[in-house]
Amino acid sequence: MATTTPESAPAHPRVHPELAGALARLPVRPENPYADIEAVRANFAALMAPRMTAPDPRVTVRHTSFTGPDGNTVEVQVLRPAGVGGVLPGVLYIHGGGFAYGELDGPSPMARDACAAAGAVVVNVHYRLAPEHRYPAGVEDCYAALEWMAGTAGDLGIDAARIAVTGASAGGCLSAALCLMARDRQGPRIAFQGLLIPCLDDRGRTASMRRITDPRYANGTGMRHMWDTYLGPDRGPDVPAYAAPARATDLTGLPPAYVLTCGLDPLRDEGLDYARRLVEADVPVELKDVPGAWHLFEAYAPESEPARRTTAHWLGALRTALAAAPDRSAAPDCSAAPDRSAAPDRSAAPARAGGDGPGRSGRPGR
């Protein structure tokens, strides 16, 4: 695979000065990063290996599993702040990786950080991956994990009224989808959604998708291949909102949100637009944009000041949201799995005419 060197790599005119060195060291990525999925998975594991070698004294980890929606086994890691007892808020952490990679042998650094910073029990879910398992396998595994987490909250030491969902990139997409699903299916209560550099729209029609073309990091072309891997290259126009949440026309009644975007990320504009539409739907939103940073830049420059500030910011938002969520542990139990046969599935309904923009119908735009 072709690579660049610090001497030959072009300097992006808008890159943050503290990130320029890390960017110059990045190799050129293949046009279709998903063409060799096993290589992608191995490369990601190698990238994260330095942060996975030593045990994290801040947290304890328990490995367990449950039966998924198709009779499959869903593995989870349950993290708890070391030495902390009692009932704590809960976080369902959903890893990123283009719906096709991102699993690690232990809980991800982001899951560990969330556990320690928010003082929460974190469930790190290993969902089925594309292309072996395309939509809806992964998102249904994540929803099953949410139901399992709420249904066993007492055993896990979780306050079922203070459960957040969060994830980066594909994990942000899946987190947003879970909020739509839980609302539509009258499922477990979600107190907060943390959408970190989320991919939300398979249509790829924003200015940032067209503008971000640098081959050294995630760009518009690569994101289009990601959606093909997840949804299939021969998908029709009626993509459900549970697959691409930007297609939802009704964003009312969703949990308070934190949305993180980056200035050199092809996903920036769809994240900004989703945040705007949430605000228009009277959903409380905190928005953070990182100028001069590319998609998942923290993994490549974890010790840089922009990475430290960004990580501290979203962890602070998560901690504040869970501390502010009302303790409704005495309220009627809503944690049991709902009767889905009676719940409307607003994601799968046909779109109304002209349903491209936000609306109140609860049906996906086209």
Task: Give a description of the structure.
This protein has an eight-stranded mixed sheet, with helices on both faces. It has helices spanning 20-24, 37-48, 109-118, 137-151, 153-156, 170-184, 207-211, 220-231, 268-280, 297-300, 305-324, and strands at residues 59-67, 73-81, 88-94, 121-126, 158-168, 192-196, 257-264, 285-294. The longest helix has 20 residues, at 305-324. Helix content is 31%, strand content 18%. With 366 residues, it is an alpha/beta fold. The protein is built from eleven helices and eight strands.
Structural class: alpha/beta
Q: What is the number of strand segments? A: 8
Shape: globular
* Mean pLDDT rating: 88
Q: Any idea what the radius of gyration is?
A: 19 Å
In whole angstroms, the N-to-C terminal distance is 38 Å
The helix tally amounts to 11
The fraction of residues assigned to DSSP E strands is 15-25%
Order of strands side by side in the largest beta sheet?
A: 1-2-4-3-5-6-7-8
Listing every helix as H and every strand as E from the N terminus to the C terminus, the arrangement reads HHEEEHEHHEHEHHEHEHH
Low-confidence stretches: 1-11, 329-366
